[in-house]
């Protein structure tokens, strides 16, 4: 039971890293980047190559995060920025096309087989927590998620930049009217979100395998997190990720046959009660 | 968004049918297989056209209902041994029921949220069939029988007969959906597409109309699935991947969204192009993705109007 809780929490933290960028970018820019999962995959692959070349997990972590941030930034400047003024439908379709391109590109560069990213030596083995023996690396995954959540929370609630971002989510026009260069804030948030997706990819590498196509499974879970958590909010992404992580993990153990349906049931239940998601961003009442 | 006048539409439909039958006459074994695939893809694309082109509901999970129809056919006919015709009807009913279940949640959501939900649910259905041992998991199920046409002296095992059967099914679906689009029901869907708030204010139960469209589209997609299962005598979770949902959406957008004939024509072009590309390179999906991005960027919202205009002009000329 405690092991399952920890497993659920581990999946939840990976999903949080992935969906927080997706969610805040959507809340801030009304932009659905379906290629977000592709950046997760890119981070994992670049991390894998770096780890194989240097033997260092920590270098892989840095390289994977940077690669996704840079590619995300270039995509934004070269392609996605132009879609800002277009209909959301176009944004979805273009980024959906990017998933196809990313998948085939990954196949061409890294081949069509699954590999496991070696974890750091210092985190090998197991530790005892809450009376159970649990792989140390998985505890590290949980810790990374919690630390990132804390840093983001502090950054959003206590800093000037965070205040600007929150203002932008609540009322974009008014924020721009205050003389704030909202375009630059968008760009920074977008790149940060992409970097977090890459970080999630590397961190997931030693737990899940790294393979072309790994992006779709996590993208779907991240979309569910965003929809049930309420788009645009950090807390929504966190709560949504924990719910989805737990339902996925316990579903696989207790009711493996209908695990996918459980998630659908959760989504249906949340949307029936709160069509805007559990903790949507926006003007507080 | 009004459909073209009935005269030119019928003429264009007849031209399309004549081309299909002409190809059937001259093609060999492989060509007839391709023709059946085109007809099945056209049915699937026309069903999505009802959602995208008429109601403005962009679904990225349509392959799920295609796959449910195919698995329904395999389950009822191959596993339970029902007569193929009965199995087909039951599979379509299951597809409609599944669409009702999904639609109840999905149509509550607008715009981008609808797209995200359909993509997510479609992938969950895919994941379920991948895992579920009762349906053969990754390996799928084989031994799906074809319709028994011996009563009319035909053998559906013959590719030539099966291709004709698929074309006939596509024609039937075209006629039915065409009537539906022109009916008050279709007009209401277009009204919802254009201005949902105003339509609601006029007293129209918007949600129920969207749900009905979703169920009809799901049932027709399931019908396409039952034919696909018969064509290859085999079903696998491959039938309901997100890539297929994306492909069908490209076909619908390229075909002009609301025009059933345009969508059917795009389906033919698409299957032919994919057939050529996949024989040239393993990475044909890369070409497809680039095509997708360029099409949306260059043509975008205008592609619907542009292609409809072009199609109407061609149809008018051919109709003379």
UniProtKB/TrEMBL annotation, chain A:
Signal peptide: none
Membrane-traversing stretches: 12-32, 57-80, 92-110, 137-156, 182-204, 261-279
Recorded topology in the membrane: Multi-pass membrane protein
UniProt-listed CDD domains: TM_PBP1_LivH_like
Origin: domain of life: Bacteria
GO molecular function, one term: transmembrane transporter activity
Subcellular locations according to the entry: Cell membrane
Name of the protein described by the UniProt record: Amino acid/amide ABC transporter membrane protein 1 (HAAT family)
Organism of derivation: Stella humosa
UniProtKB/TrEMBL annotation, chain B:
Principal subcellular localisation of the protein: membrane
GO terms of molecular function: branched-chain amino acid transmembrane transporter activity
Keywords on record: Cell membrane, Membrane, Transmembrane, Transmembrane helix
Topology in membrane: Multi-pass membrane protein
Database matches in Pfam families: BPD_transp_2
GO terms under cellular component: plasma membrane
InterPro entries, per the entry: ABC_transp_permease, LivM-like
Transmembrane feature ranges: 12-31, 38-65, 85-105, 112-130, 160-177, 209-228, 248-272, 284-303
Superkingdom to which the source organism belongs: Bacteria
Subcellular location: Cell membrane
UniProt name for this protein: Amino acid/amide ABC transporter membrane protein 2 (HAAT family)
Origin organism lineage: Bacteria, Pseudomonadati, Pseudomonadota, Alphaproteobacteria, Rhodospirillales
